[in-house]
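To whoever picks this up:

The nightly regression suite flagged Universal stress protein as changed. Nothing in the input moved, so I suspect the structure step. Input below, exactly as stored in the fixture:
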Amino acid sequence: MKSVLLHINQDPGQAARLAAAMEVVRAHNGQLICLQASPLDAYFFVGDPFGGSYVPSGIFETFRQNEKLEQVRIEDTLKREGIDWQWLHAEGSAAQTIIEHAKFADLIVLSQPEEKETMLPRRAPLAADVALHVQSPVLLVPTAGQRFTNSNAAMIAWNGSPEAANAIRQSRSLLRAAPKLHIVSVSEKGKKPSLDALSNYLTRYGVTAERHDWSLDGDTVANALIAAAASLEAEYIVFGAYGHSRLRETVLGGVTQDLITTSPVPLILAH
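Regenerated output under the current build:
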């Protein structure tokens, strides 16, 4: 993973996702692409009954100054850490700009959604909206909780779906670097996806994995996967994000929604 795209935004999750992105860049001798998106529409105010809008005096200048200070702070960190980086700035919504600049990214690093992003059931926060519209895997980092270092066990959440298979293919280089790998299958309604084809696929790439059939025990699939990760001491979970677009909204499947909003460990997701 030579090209890692990092979302730059002054929010509580920035430090954790910056640390995770640097770990991946170091491990693969790659370059970090820092993408600072300016959602300027958030700073426009309706000014008259006819729909006119404007930016109040001083707000735009303060916003730009804060962006520059953030850039200086992060670039100082990257210099100290010996990270090769490129800084990009774009105007527009975070989702739109990330999707636009993800064409040549091997990995996109985002934060677990904040509570305000999850108020509407089945509506996609930024991470899922991006994952469902790009061809690159997304590393989703919790603001607090397990750090991503790729130096501990990894876990694949396998349900036999095309989305899960795609997430695995796109994460091969990270999975090869994990000291231990677990494949966890959670049976739903009597359905039990075969693990043989997946195990054979990984073996062809020199990756061996322990296989586990995990019981729901009356719980949700997301909670069962989180429990499995804790029991197996997995640092992160690879899974396929399920969802679709409808009337310009991204609508998520239940397991995807639950995992990205509640997982205490990092997630690598792809559609």
